[in-house]
Amino acid sequence: MTKSTRTRATYRCSECGWETAKWVGRCGECQAWGSVAEAAATAPSGRTAPSAVTSPAVPIGQVPVEDSAFRTSGIPELDRVLGGGLVPGAAILLAGEPGVGKSTLLLEVAAQTARMRHRTLYVTGEESASQVRLRADRTQAIHDELYLAAETDLGAVLSHIEEVRPTLLVIDSVQTIGASGVEGVPGGVTQVREVAAALVRMAKTRNITTVLVGHVTKDGSIAGPRVLEHVVDVVLHFEGDRNSRFRMVRAMKNRFGPVDEVGCFDLGADGITAVTDPTGLFVEHHSTQVPGTCVAVTMEGRRPLLAEVQALVTPTASERPRRTTSGIDSSRLSMVLAVLQQHCGIRLHNHDVFVSTVGGAKLVDPASDLAIAVAVAGACFDVAAPTGVVAMGEIGLAGELRRVRDLPQRLGEASRLGFRVAVVPGERGPAKSRTPESWTVDGMRVLDVQDVASALRLLRLTRGD
């Protein structure tokens, strides 16, 4: 009996490429509504015959590693995120919101690479060549080894690569490049998949470091099919508040180094510069004690950062008091307020609570819970915490303080910046006393406490103190 090729109807999401056998109103992968439409698919028949190999298989110990050694990008903060620098043949995806500074950062990387006598090709599909030249004049990124092309056709981009033979290739952006002969418009699922696959193949075969700029959706995720994140070696997110010059590059995937590493940058009128010591941007230096403030020590990758938390508590007659946050997860604040009311006797059900960070910092580390509690308690009782105090610790629903990771690094950074007292979670166990114990690290006094109530009593932030 001969098997015939049958065509069956499948349904594909236009946002992420997810496929299903029947129509649904909501994508099961990216959860987008109304993005699933019918697409014809042909079931494959027969078997794939063996074909010629590109290179013979060899024992893994005989594979040379010299060609894949790290090469600096010329920007130390970016090298930190990448795990050491640029790797020949690596495909890197840099995603971020419009206007955050992706093009400015990559133009600086291209210029630094050209200054090291490595030929660089910068392909722009969103701007004209003259517009990129104006930015290069402003940021001092002019060099003879930096080549610029304005193209939106994949075939033309591949021809430029064949002619220039660069060491570094920058595509700004992958959603603007279209492949002729492939259905769909540039930026669609099919087009992005084909363009990315072709550029990654070129990067691997020619040993070219390739950086692709990607767009993001309104919820902050990378636009296009999820296969785009799978085919590349490194995924970087460029983050920043439009009202601040501070920018952060965060590694979400890295085959050559650690993930969740962070690099800090300052975006100004004359370009982008690395910020090797960003802690001072997130801490306000007060001349006097201010109620409702506390400094937390968070970990961004392997880097400790100090950030100041500010709180304001005001009475309200509303049945539903406001809980407003900036830089802090609102659900985390609600949990901290519930613990303060249940285990510390701080009644906040008839108060509006506003909590914010200084300098646009975003605190996602659970170790900042104790600093939030200290700031709220101080604002509620209009009492300032002692000067030079940092607080760190994750708060449990029972009011206990849980230990945090990388405590020595956090304490060392706080001591370096002049803080003299740190309140941290203590060792738990029946043999430990509930009386706060103290020890010294680099001239800083460290106080161990068991729960959030003990921490507030220690800092004299309870009613009657």
UniProtKB/TrEMBL annotation:
ATP binds at residues 96-103. It comes from Nocardioides daphniae. It comes from the Bacteria. InterPro entries: AAA+_ATPase (IPR003593), DNA_repair_RadA (IPR004504), P-loop_NTPase (IPR027417), RecA_ATP-bd (IPR020588), Ribosomal_Su5_D2-typ_SF (IPR020568), Ribsml_uS5_D2-typ_fold_subgr (IPR014721), Rubredoxin_2 (IPR041166). GO terms for molecular function: ATP binding; ATP-dependent DNA damage sensor activity; damaged DNA binding; hydrolase activity; zinc ion binding. The keyword Glycosyltransferase does not apply. This is DNA repair protein RadA. Residues 67-216 form the RecA family profile domain. Keywords: ATP-binding, DNA damage, DNA repair, DNA-binding, Hydrolase, Metal-binding, Nucleotide-binding, Stress response, Zinc, Zinc-finger. One of its GO terms (cellular component) is cytosol.
